[in-house]
Amino acid sequence: MLRSIKHLYGDRLIASDGELGFVKDFYFDDRNWVIRYLVADTGSWLSERLVLIPPHALGIVERAGQRLQVHLTRRQIEDSPSIDHHKPVSRQYEESYYQHYGLPFYWQGDSLWGITGFPPRNLAVPPQKRNLSDVALGYAAGPDAHLRSTVAVHGYQAHGKHSRVGQVTDFVIDDQSWAIRYLVVRTNPAQADSEVLVPIAKVSGVSYAESSVRVTCTAEEIRQSPDYHCRPDGSCLDPVQTTAKDLTPSTPEPRVAESKHQTSNAPVGITAAAQVRKLPEVSSDEVATSAYFTFVRQGRQGGHDVQHWLDAEAKLRALAASPPAARSEAIDQRSAR
User: Fold this and answer.
1) Residue range 151-236, CATH number
2) Which residues lie closer than 8 Å to 276 by C-beta, 6 or more apart?
3) What single DSSP character describes residue 227?
4) What angle in degrees, to the nearest 10, is found between the helix axes of 305-321 and 284-297?
5) Predicted confidence band at 145 (pLDDT cuts at 50, 70, 90)?
6) What element of type H or E holds 295?
7) What are the residues whose beta carbons fall under 8 Å from the beta carbon of 168, sequence distance 6 or more?
């Protein structure tokens, strides 16, 4: 699901053992356009340091009552490597941070999160050491890990091929991979409803010295971009999947007149869409774990993370929809491996 970053600011953070604080900011990787860390405001607790939470600890964003569950304890966070508010997040710091939580390094591998396209959680992966692949990727050259603040970039001017085209007002992310899919650009500063979605593929660079973002579009192409639609819960309509029905207020479905030619066994008035059985829900943790072990079984070859995820999701949904006896047998077979 796509979500607005701006709508997450200020949400309460709940650790496994109590209140943690609030969402203050996000740090994103401006090379791969993905959120790497949530920045927490912990109030008087740990006020002297920067408190970072990895997406691995959040999984899919669930904003019940504007709360985000963090699958870490306060003690784990307190014992994590400390970093000053005003210092950049270096690669050296990230190494110690990832080792503290036992997470695989996202900069080692061919996928968005190193070994997979999604931030794996609770995987027993031994800490890794820096090797020559870091140098090949250009990550070990300096102290900066190319992490930028979403709060800081909010308000940057967007410049197109020939002129200024608007102002950055939000980021839209995929809440499973934490990849940034779109920039939200307001084409008319005086009109709040003039916001459009600009695909990240159209962003050619960010100038922090000039507080600007460059896109490979003309002003007219920007104006013709899909409109930005964000629901009250922070979820966003995906222009790739949006239909006209998504943009109109919900109205009662018209009753279907009874006909002697009707072949459906559904009661009269039930639409075809309502007859479609909803697919069983599976947790992202289960999918990520299954996809990871597929990655391992296939020799840790990169570039197949999306296919691994889709295969794992389909397999788990089929298992959830199967009769209890068949489900139990499949679990027994999996345990015996």
Assistant:
1) 2.30.30.240
2) none
3) B
4) 120
5) low
6) helix 284-297
7) 153, 154, 155, 156, 157, 158, 183, 184, 185, 213
Per DSSP bridges, beta strands 212-215 and 157-159 are: parallel
Instruction: Report whether pLDDT(132) > 90.
Output: no
Q: In the prediction, which pLDDT does 324 show? A: 62
For the beta carbon of residue 250, count every other beta carbon within 10 angstroms. 7
Q: Which own/partner pairs from 140-146 qualify as long-range (CB within 8 Å, at least 24 positions apart)?
A: 140/91, 143/88, 143/90, 143/91, 143/92, 144/88, 144/89, 144/90, 145/29, 145/36, 145/88, 145/89, 145/90, 145/91, 145/94, 145/107, 146/29, 146/30, 146/31
177, amino acid identity: S
Mean pLDDT of the chain: 77
Residue 277 predicted with pLDDT over 60: no
pLDDT at 153 over 70: yes
Q: Is the pLDDT of residue 278 over 80?
A: no
28 backbone dihedrals φ, ψ, rounded to 5°: -115, 155
Q: Quick check: 29 and 139 in contact, CB under 8 A?
A: no
State the average pLDDT over residues 62-81. 85
Q: Which residues contact 327 (CB under 8 A, 6 or more apart)?
A: 319, 320
Q: Residue 218: phi, psi to the nearest 5? A: -85, 170
Looking at the structure, give the CATH architecture of the domain made up of residues 2-149: Roll (2.30)
Token look-up 């971009």 returns 225
Rounded CA separation 241/184 (Å): 18
Half-sphere exposure of 100 (CA within 13 A, CB side): 18
Instruction: Check residue 200 and give its pLDDT.
Output: 94
pLDDT at position 270 over 70:
no
- Looking at per-residue confidence, does 139 or 17 come out higher? 17
Residues in the chain: 337
